[in-house]
Amino acid sequence: MATPLDPNYRARLQALGDMFAASIPTRMAAIADALAAAGMSPDRAKLETLHHALHTVAGSAGSFGFTVLGEQARRLEQAVRGVMDGGPGWQLLVPEIQHYLDWARNDARNTAFPAHD
């Protein structure tokens, strides 16, 4: 295995991971706020805000060791995209997003995501 040129590489990577971990409550709040604003009959702009909030987690979580958090955000992001593109399912998607938020608030490092009832 190659040694990074920067002798502080691991410490810097750990610091970035810690910063990401500290940002999770804010990121989950952004998703929750976007979900609340979307309501039960969202317009495209509100769905785009929710999509963006999920996308930011999906795009970075795995890089910092939050693999399942990122995978679930990606799954939900794609489902929101489907609704944005005219697909059905918003009424079923709302409780799934809430389930994700509840799970992430409890233990975002968890490597198992429980099925939603």
From TrEMBL:
What keywords were assigned to this record?
Answer: Two-component regulatory system
This protein is called Hpt domain-containing protein
Please, one GO biological process term? Answer: phosphorelay signal transduction system
Q: Does the keyword NADP apply?
A: no
Q: Which InterPro entries match?
A: HPT_dom_sf (IPR036641), Sig_transdc_His_kin_Hpt_dom (IPR008207)
Superkingdom as given in the UniProt entry: Bacteria
Q: Record keywords: Cytoplasm included?
A: no
Species for this entry: Pseudoduganella lutea
Tell me one GO molecular function of this protein. protein kinase activity
Domain HPt, residue spans: 18-102
Transmembrane portions of the chain? none
